[in-house]
Amino acid sequence: MEPNRRSVRPEAVLGGRLLTFAGDGDIVGLSQQVTALVYGVTPGETSYDEVLEWVVTSIAEVITGKMGPIIDSEVDGATGDAVTLRTPDGTQLAVDDLPAPERHVWKAIVGTLEGDSRRAHTCLDAVEHGSGPGEQAHALIEAIGWLDRLLGLPALNGPYTVPD
């Protein structure tokens, strides 16, 4: 049975195409497509903000799918989900330590993970309306790269508990 392409949202189609460029290591193709999207010259029915939101939602879904249910615990006096990123050299970074607009993208991912769509949209607005075209392109390319890398990670066995 063939998939019904009409039922697939345009931002998912374009997001999947961008993800394919990343997976193939075609940085030039990815950059060209993202730049066209940022400047609004991509033919189709979708916009930068719709694609960015799709990527953020997809990242949150992959994290949830790979980790299973997250069991809240207290971290530094606050309860809730704690996200710490690790650089290729093993350095740990808190989301707040990232430069804008990547910080806003990760805060949107955390908001999505926590089910706080209002906070997620507020964070994405900071990228979409508070950043220049170069920063917007960089943020989307980075987010596509994060999604590509997350898809390649193995899933955890069992629930994940935030460490004390």
Task: Describe this structure as you would to a colleague.
The protein is mainly α and 164 residues long. Helix content is 55%, strand content 10%. It is built from 6 helices and 6 strands, in the order αααβββββαααβ. The protein has helices spanning 10-23, 27-38, 48-67, 102-113, 117-130, 133-151; strands spanning 70-71, 73-75, 78-80, 84-86, 92-94, 160-161. The strands form 3 sheets. Strands 1-6 form a two-stranded parallel sheet. Strand 4 (84-86) and strand 5 form a beta hairpin. Helix 1 (10-23) packs across helix 3. The radius of gyration is 16 Å and the shape is globular. Mean pLDDT is 85; it is low at 73-80.
Mean pLDDT: 85
The count of strands amounts to 6
Order of helices and strands: HHHEEEEEHHHE
Instruction: Strand order, main sheet: write it out.
Output: 1-6
